[in-house]
Amino acid sequence: MDEQQNTAPGAPSHAWYLAVLARARGVPAVATAVAHPTDALSLGAAHEAAALGLIAPILVGPRGRIEAAAAAAGIDISGFRLEDAPHSHAAAARAVELVRAGDARLLMKGALHTDELMHEVMAAATGLRTERRISHVYLMDLPDHDRPLLVTDAAINIAPDLEEKRDIVQNAIDLAHVMGIGAPKVALLSAVETVNPKLQSTLDAAALCKMADRGQIVGGVLDGPLAFDNAISAEAARDKGIVSPVAGQADILVVPDLVSGNILAKMLTFVAMADAAGVVLGARVPIILTSRADNERARIASCAVAVLMSGEPMLAVKPPA
């Protein structure tokens, strides 16, 4: 894998990616249950992360299909533990079981639908639920931007209510701490910067700010509602006359719903050429949830972030009663 920095104007330097990878390489390889890795992409991601010393994969799925996919792609899996499971549903269930048993400290999505894996994660009796709402965070390293941006939630929660947004914000703050951002600035996004009773996202933003004031959200500085431009551009914030400790310097962007988050994350990746990593938080262990559209760097960065999270006691949350 090419780890050289591209110094062309407007090109991503990959500096953040390289720094995260360097930190994760200092951690012993983490046992990782890979659910249904039956294609070259998912096997290749697990193999590359193992080669870099990030994870020790446990491949869970139909043995014949996994071995055939590995042979077709020229990937040597002889050194990996392989747990036979007849189909994707059984593979997801077995991968979650391995985590619950302590055999694995990370869970990684293979060639199956996200919903299928998350169904097993969310199962009340046998899953990996905790008292915290499960959510997804993208970490975006943008060209010519002086800090990585965390975008949440663009993959799990479709239309979160206020209580769910509280957990989404807290999950992202906890991750920011792991990434070395001590007091992350959290922008609660909407289409406008003022509270409008007809626009629920502005009401939620205002309530979340007050929740932070009352200690219901800790470890970050919140402000909102803020439009996207005012969240990341100090000039745009000045033009609007916004005086805020967050506007123009946000570390975390909290979107109103999954649709807006998904559009924003893909725009940053495919138009703004951001390096991206994605991880699911709030379960008993971090979950590496990559997309078929992710490049190799994104998949490895996601593994590296999850590895760093796996050893952080600050993210430990109790299972629900």
Which properties best describe this structure?
single chain, 321 residues, alpha/beta, Rossmann fold, Isopropylmalate Dehydrogenase, 2 domains, eleven-stranded mixed sheet, 11 helices
Could you characterize what this model shows?
- The protein is α/β, with parallel strands linked by helices.
- Helix 4 packs across helix 5.
- Helices cover 39% and strands 17% of the residues.
- It has two domains: 1-132 and 282-321, Rossmann fold (3-Layer(aba) Sandwich), CATH 3.40.50; 133-279, Isopropylmalate Dehydrogenase (3-Layer(aba) Sandwich), CATH 3.40.718.10.
- The longest helix has 17 residues, at 162-178.
- It is globular.
Number of domains: 2
CATH topology value of the largest domain: Rossmann fold
Q: What structural class results from the helix and strand content?
A: alpha/beta
Kindly provide the radius of gyration, computed on alpha-carbon positions and rounded to a whole number of angstroms. Answer: 20 Å
Contiguous low-pLDDT stretches (5 residues minimum) are 1-9
CATH level-1 class of the largest domain: Alpha Beta
| Shape summary | globular
Largest sheet: 11 strands, mixed
β-strand percent reads: 15-25%
CATH architecture of the largest domain: 3-Layer(aba) Sandwich
* End-to-end separation: 45 Å
